[in-house]
Amino acid sequence: MFQIYLYTLEIALLSTLIAAAAGIPAAYFTARRRFPGRRLLLSFSAVSLCVPSLIVALGYVSFWGMNGTVNRLFGTEFSFLYSTAGIVIAQGFYNVPFITGIVSEAWERLPREQENAARLLGADEARILRTVTLRQLSGAIGAACIPVFLFCYFSFMIVLLFSPVGRSTLEVEIYHSIRTTLDIGAGAKLALLETITAFGIVLAYSYVARRSQTTSSGVDYVPVVRRRIRGSAVVFVPLVFMILIFLIFPLGSVFVNGAGELGKVLGSRGFWKACANSVKCGVATGAACTLLGFAYSVAVKLARRQANVLLQTIPVLPMAISSVVISWGATMIFHQGTPALLVALQTALYWPIAYRQIQNGINRITYETDAAARMLSRNPLDSIFRIYLPACRPVLISAFAYCFAISLGDATMPLVLSIRNFDTLALYTYKLAGAYRFSQACACGGIVAALSMLIFTLGKK
């Protein structure tokens, strides 16, 4: 058990280091430099949220597998996928856009006074970056890297498909304990160890996120004037090349390899049944998460307890519970998975994402507006409908879209719950891949990815 635990931490740490090593330089270029495709690169910041990890795994098999694009193109038989390196590279580059988006936004908003003072004192750009800029960005980097570590720590699909023989992580081993070996005692021990560690990481994230918000508040930011790449090309070109071959091309190969089987997939009754199930669950989960997130945000705002540490910590606690563990716990209590149970579990895990989106909208309501609403409204409910709902309409739509897209791409919970005669699109894709109908799996996976990204994009507008 201890070896599995250490291997899980190793996989998560190495994946996070790769994501940070590529994501932080990419954040610098998107924040401080002008180049073609800058907005496109930033638009990928939601890939790890709205594109299921199963689709990323299919993309890597399609592009880097033994019969993949690279080997067909060069006539070789090279593959690194079914190894620790394959897991780490896939998970690392899958999360690069997430780190890039968060750190780039913080980098753009950095006050320039300390950098300018360092230049006046004779410091070169490398020393300014090391001693000033990275110090200022430490909170944002921590707030980006800790969730990535958790994503990789709880990773299931990529590890399940790519883990080498004799190696496993806590999440995969828990699944095998409850579905294959039926060793409930061993599964419970692993689940407890995994959850306790995750709670410690989540509490660290909560502290770092509050520190990042505190250090960035009350500062007047000056818009950044972006310069051309020029001398930075020696770093920029290899970085773009790595992102292309380890993220963009694998994702693109899912659509390319699935194009020929698209008609067969669309002509299948199973596909349309799974599609209907996914839409129903997505709508229910999105609505429930948005309602819960809005209710919690308004309650905290009306109580004027936004700075309360406990109230700010509660929404991050679900991050410490994995999909496998919560699904297994639910099956132990209810014995049989149902669509309603699936929606309830997804809501329990995803509502903090909606809360974070809605909280940003709630916080934009000024103290004066809030005070006037309290004074002129007949009761708190009246002020909620007259002030809070109209002010938060854009973020409510965005929160619904986020949660809908994540629900759409979730294959883990439906797999563990084993709901009778009930497939979602993500689970249907997994079953196609498991039946070695790889081209059809790519076609279905491409549809899932396209729908997730479309819903997410529409929600942001």
TrEMBL record:
Task: Extract the Pfam families matched here.
Answer: BPD_transp_1
Q: Where are the transmembrane segments?
A: 6-28, 40-60, 80-103, 137-162, 190-208, 229-251, 271-297, 309-330, 336-355, 395-417, 437-458
Where does this protein reside within or beyond the cell?
Cell inner membrane; Cell membrane
Q: Report the residue ranges that make up the ABC transmembrane type-1 domain in this protein.
A: 5-205, 275-459
> What CDD domains does its record include?
TM_PBP2 (cd06261)
PANTHER family per UniProt: INNER MEMBRANE ABC TRANSPORTER PERMEASE PROTEIN YDCV
Listed name of the protein: Thiamine transport system permease protein
Q: Which organism is it from?
A: Treponema bryantii
